[in-house]
Amino acid sequence: MLQRVSLPEDSQDNQAVVAGGIAADRLRSIIERVERLEDERKALSGDIKDIFSEAKSAGFDVKVIRTIIRLRKQEPGELEAQETLLQIYRRALGM
């Protein structure tokens, strides 16, 4: 959404605040907030990678841990339905 700001035409301060009808300070603030969050996300991703490395060095199967984390995010009813279908499909394939 484009935000337009109406200021008097004769104001000299308009050049710093508005460029092409866009509130420059507001735009700068939004961009800087996104940049900070991206930096935080990068740091968190590194932390998560370190935890998985720790789990692997402790002898845990990281692939299984990732599966458990994914399963824990699901609703109990959805998880139960998925497990039931998995059992049915495995039996159908003789597994």
Describe this entry's structure for a reader:
The chain has four helices and two strands. The protein has helices at 14-17, 24-57, 62-72, 76-92; strands spanning 18-19, 22-23. Helices cover 69% and strands 4% of the residues. The protein starts with 13 loop residues before the first helix and ends with a helix. It has 95 residues and is mainly α. The longest helix has 34 residues, at 24-57.
SSE order in H/E notation?
HEEHHH
Pairing-aware structural class of the strands and helices? Answer: mainly alpha
Radius of gyration: 26 Å
Low-confidence stretches: none
Distance between the termini: 54 Å
Major sheet strand order: 1-2
The number of helices is 4
Percent of residues in β-strands:
under 5%
Total DSSP E strands: 2
Please state the average pLDDT score: 87
Largest sheet: 2 strands, antiparallel
Helix content estimate: 55-70%
Features:
single chain; 95 residues; mainly alpha; two-stranded antiparallel ribbon; 4 helices; 2 strands; 69% helix; 4% strand
Explain briefly what this protein structure is.
With 95 residues, the protein is mainly α. It has helices at 14-17, 24-57, 62-72, 76-92; strands at 18-19, 22-23.
Summarize the topology:
Blueprint: H1 14-17, E1 18-19, E2 22-23, H2 24-57, H3 62-72, H4 76-92
Antiparallel strand pairs: 1-2
